[in-house]
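re the bet — no i am not wrong, look at it urself. input seq straight from the record:
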Amino acid sequence: MTAPLRIALLASSRHAVRQPFAGGMESFVFEFARALTSAGHRVTLFAAPGSSTDLPCDVLPVHTFDMSEESRRDPLAPEWIVHETHAYLSVMMDLADTLRDDFDLVHNHSLHYLPLAMARSIPAPMLTTLHTPPLPWLEQAVALPRGVASSFAAVSDFTAEQWRPIIGPVSLVPNGIDLDAWRRGPGGDYAVWSGRLVPEKGVALAIATARRAGLRLRIAGPVGDPAYFDQVVRPELGDDVEYCGHLRQEELNELVGGAAVALVTPVWEEPFGLVTAEALASGTPVAAFARGGIPEIVDEDSGRLATPDDVDGLARAALEAAALPRDAARARAETHCSHAVMTERYVELYEDLVRDDRRVSA
């Protein structure tokens, strides 16, 4: 298939797709939309209000509504959940009705159950990327009696195996990053940690690790949980631990590329770990807990892995990783974290789905 495709990308209705990014998902969708557009496809993005206007694609408006005072008083229905459900219900109804002839394919990156539950209502085929483990709301949508009208791709073998008992084998498309945007840095004498500042990312363990290894630590990322930051992170800041703020991509690249080693410390089974790929692309070796999909990215030439939650082990890993050649880290990113390869693989899946859908409709 050589004709450009008309693709609807469904992203988060809560977090705007713009710099500085709220998290890895927003960064991923931002760059992916650009890559698809550069490849000649027409991309329309469904994302939260305030999403970047410099994206080379159209943006589907997120429908909002004003809750009544009576509704706001209901303690069982937090306002953000109601707004999110309304947004996805609205966009799926639009795709089934007024937008039904506008797209060849819908690519679902949301973590909400409604796109899956309503996939049968839209005429275009749907591909859903599994960015998370089988969360209860997503799993119940897949388990509907008639089944779900979506194909699936997983971001890592680990995530694919988690979903296998529920939906069977799925395609594997590891996440990629724009290697032209992430440049190899010179390195330095400090450790770096980047990501959302929330409990599951384990920045407290990174702080303990850096001190155990005798390394200064510089931290960057959005404060996703203010109470956690104020109670756990802020008291640890000082001469040896610095919070550098919520940075734009080019600023983060400079910070990560100037580090001797990047610490990756999830306390949950990280499906992929985009910060790992970003560190390697910056030429910075990685010391990480061997959780989730991270061992699929880091090899002996580009970093060291430690037993999850083992601060002493990660401190040893950090010192070993810091001595590795930076060229090897960058080379690993080029062979295993390529944005171009990821995009090409997704387009192949798109073409297969659209071709099969046209055969069925003929």
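see?? The longest helix spans residues 339-361. told u. also The mean pLDDT is 92. so pay up
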